[in-house]
From TrEMBL:
Its EC number is 4.2.1.59. Keywords: Lyase. This is 3-hydroxyacyl-[acyl-carrier-protein] dehydratase FabZ. It holds the Pfam family FabA. It comes from Mariniblastus fucicola.
Length: 159
């Protein structure tokens, strides 16, 4: 993952839900242009944060079985507020339906408890060896790399 739009996974209930956070800093390079006198997180990056949280939930729920998790559809997206530097976008994703390799989720991004963005996402999971005829080693390498990155975001405190 080249650009992570999440800083930390706060809660994860395998097969059910996830809560993650993105703390927006003025040092984010894209804020120089979006917008120069009113810097806000672009809506597409808010969507990306919700996708990434959903992706981690799907990966963990499937025990990292698939190397690839893609966004198939974003529906009923509502943008209701701005994410400005100094604020934290808290992303909640909840699995609503799983059919084979397709997972449908309800997602909400809040700032200080108020909805800033919400919608429904459909994700698809697969291995490249199954779809593109690639060597299984590519899938294994990708899964290994995703597991490493995941451990940086999610380190639950033992009870």
């Amino acid at each position: 993952m080249r650009f992570s739009q999440l800083d930390r996974i706060l809660e994860l209930d395998k097969g059910a839900s996830i809560k993650a956070v993105k703390c927006l800093s003025l040092s984010e390079e894209y804020l120089n242009d979006h917008f120069p006198r009113f810097p806000v997180m672009p809506g597409v990056l808010m969507l990306e944060a919700m996708f990434q949280a959903s992706m981690w939930l799907v990966r963990e729920s499937n025990d990292f079985e698939h190397s690839t998790v893609v966004l198939r559809e974003a529906k009923s997206m509502k943008f209701q507020g701005f994410v400005q530097p100094g604020s934290s976008l808290v992303v909640d994703a909840e699995i609503k339906k799983v059919e084979d390799s397709i997972t449908k989720l309800k997602v909400v991004g809040t700032i200080d408890g108020k909805a800033s963005v919400s919608g429904r996402l459909t994700l698809e999971s697969y291995n490249l060896a199954d779809r593109e005829g690639r060597d299984e080693a590519v899938d294994k390498y990708m899964i290994h790399q995703f597991r490493k990155f995941y451990r940086r975001l999610w380190a639950p405190i033992p009870a």
